[in-house]
Every structure is written in C-alpha cells, then in structure tokens.
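Note on ligand handling. Small-molecule inputs were canonicalized before submission; formal charges were left as drawn, and no protonation-state enumeration was performed. Where a ligand contained multiple stereocentres, the stereochemistry in the source SMILES was retained. For zinc ion, this procedure yielded the string shown in the input block below.
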Amino acid sequence: MSKYESVIGLEIHAQLLTESKIFCSCSTTFGNEPNRNICPVCTGQPGVLPVLNKKVVEFAIKTALALHCQIAPYSIFARKQYFYPDLPKDFQISQYELPLATNGYVEINVNGNTRCIRIHRIHLEEDAGKLVHAGSDRIQGSTYSLVDFNRTGVPLMEIVSEPDMATPEEARAYVQEIAALLKSLGVCDAKMEEGSLRCDGNVSIRPVGDKNLGTKTEVKNVNSTKALKDALDAEIVRQIKAVDAGERIIQETRHFNENTGQTISLRSKEEAHDYRYFPEPDLVPLEVSKEWIDEIKQGIGELPAEKIKRYVEQFGIKTEDVETILESPGMAEFFEGAIRLYGKPQIVANWLTGEISAYLNAKKLEIKNSKLKISTLVGMLALIDKGTISGKIAKEVIVKMLDTGKSAEEIVKESGATQISDEGELIKAIQEVIKNNPKPVQDYKDGKKASITFLVGQVMKVTKGRAKPDLVNKLLEKELS
Ligand SMILES: [Zn+2]
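Structure output:
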C-alpha cells in the first residue's frame, strides 16, 4: 500500500461543431489549405469587431444542462493576454470572471462503482492558430515555422472539473463519459486523436487521509484516453519518488512523451494574474433568458447515461456493448431499427460491436455512411437462423456486405458459401479426413475422446467452414464407431 493518494482534476477543451467560427463567419472546416478560412476579424486586423455566434452559446447551454450546471443569466467575455505567434491579436477572447455555467456534475462508472464528479465551470473561448515547424514536428530541430490561422477563432468550450478524481482510471472514465455525452448532444465530435477534444490533467499527491491539496502539475499532450491514463500514472510515480527523495514539487506544465512513457518539464505554470485578464470591451455581456434555456432543454434527447440504463433494462444487453454502440455515431438508431425488425437484441449487439465495428473503425467510417443497411443485416441474421450459412461464414459475408452493399443472399449465391446440409456430401468429406488422419483416428478408438475435436476441425477445413460443426460431430462419431 502506498502512503500517498493522488488527486486529479481535468480541463477538457471541446471544439464545437458549428459551421462558422465563434466571432466571425469564417468556415470551421478542418483540413482546408492553410490560411483559407480567415478574415480580418479572426486575424486581428485593426478596426474590426467580433460578433458572437448564437449557435456556439446554444451548444454550450445544451452541454451545461446535460451536466446539471447552473447557467448564468449574465456572463461576460474577457481578454486573456499572452504573446505567441499563433495568436494574431495577442489576446484570446475567453471567459474569466462570470463564466456561462457553473456547479454541475457527471456520474462515471469505474469497475462497477458509480462516482459523482463535480463540474466546476464551463466557459467559451476561441481557439488559437497552428504553428507548422519545418523539418520537425516540434520547434526543436526546426529551421523555421509557418503559421496557419484556419483554426484561429474556432469555438472552444472548456469544461473544468473539480479535483474529484482519485485515480487515473477515474480520469479516463470521466473523459470517456464527457466525450460520449458531447457526441450524443451533437455539439462536438470528440476525436482526441484529431484534437477536437483536448484534455489537460492537473495532478497532485498527498499523504493518505490528508485534507490539504499538494502542489499540482499540469500534464499536457495526451491524444487518447489511454495516453491520459498513462501520463497521469507516470506523473504520480514521478511525484512520489521526488517527495520521498525530499524534493519539493514545483507547479509547472509537463509534457507527456508517449514513446518514453515519461513526463518532462515544459515550463513553469502561469498564474491567472500573468494573463492580465480584463473584460472584453468589444462584446456586450452575454444575457441568456430563461425562455431560451427552456427551449434548448426541450430539444435535448435521451442522454447516454439514460440510454445505457434503458438498453440494459429493456433489451437485457451487456453494459459494455451499449457503451460501444453509443460511441459510434448513428449506431444506436441502427441498433434500435434492427431490433424492431428482428428482435434478439444481444445477437444484434454482438454483430454491431464485433465484426461491424471492427470494419467501420478500420475504414474510419460511421455506420450511416457505410453500405450496410438495417434490412440487409437482418436478412443475413435470418440466413444464419435458417441454417443456410454458418456463423463462421457469416463473418466473411458481413465484410462483403459492407464492401459492396449487396444483400447476404446475393453474396452467398455468388460464392456458393451456403451450409452443406446434404449428409451424403458431408460423409464424403468425413471419410476423406478419416483416411488422411490415421493417428487421431486411432487415438479416438483407443479412448482419447478429445481427439474428435481435431477431426471436426479438419472436416470444417475441408468443407471451407460450410458444415455445421454439431452435425459433423454426430456423423463422425457414427463413422468411427
Ligand atoms: Zn474570420
């Protein structure tokens, strides 16, 4: 048992899925040629004025409601001032005092235990641009850098938790929960690897039972929930070693190196006063009416936590399957549609979370953009039920269905992959296997009953998986007796 415990709080930056930027009408489309999505406002030219995008506020309110926050009827934007080449105005418009929402919570599930993590605040801000370092992916080793302002002014929502997480596992579960929630609300696509969801972890240690917080460090550069967990694990180990060696923890920002699994010091952590925040004079205070909040509330559908509960209760499927289904956009609708046509929820869930998810993930596809239709999936399941194809063959058929959009029937007809139900044909295959495998056959006859499994496998091989294993087993036993 360690004599220390860790305390973790997270800041999540979520890129909101609006078509235009937060303070101008430039497009937010990702991947355009550099410096195409820009205008005088987002590049900080003199004499221009920002105009707040209403959709951005709506998305933030939606999130705040789903996270049980109090929404401020009156909040203000502020200038956060710092100098960096990716920030053309030399300040970022953010919210400091009086953020849009405060005091919420979210429930997370870790190893079967439910924990409540409090949300400290949610505020809005604009993103900065992006530096492209020539000859290197970092500033070190690069001879010059270029700046791309396409991302400048893209709306960000920052969700700040209270330091309520005790372990890196809880931190990971928290980010997964928030990501699922944002996706289901349709406000953010939450792709950590593409940077549309970014996460910084604040972590400190203290002697077990101590109520005071230790000095925290901030861990940056994690682009997956696994990297977040690994980074926090590494940082906790480092802090414990340092404290045990009599060193003092310094408040600083640390960079996680995924290759070495270590965190390294990046810079000493800024204090809020370093940014000389002051109210943004070019924007009026943001006033949110109760009527508008009510209207947005009406538009929020079922939240992931509610959906998980309902699926488990109503359909009796496994919680982890529900989570996989909800992670993929459009899959819940597909799932419910298939159940309406076919029933058997766990079988549908197994296919969706197994072969179909594997295919979609490999191709970076969403199910609604794939060639698979609810009716064709149900058609394939019916062929398995009728015994026309085996479950094993079906795994190949589903890939062809996803590739071509054809029905299972068409594919089976073309490839002749139907199950062999003609016993005569099967017996021929069995006799061939018996002839070619004298040793296992003798073993079986000598009482080693387990060797029949091997022979069944050989028959399946000869018939290219088109036989029913239980029928093969039965016929083999007969032949060998
Ligand atoms: Zn612009």
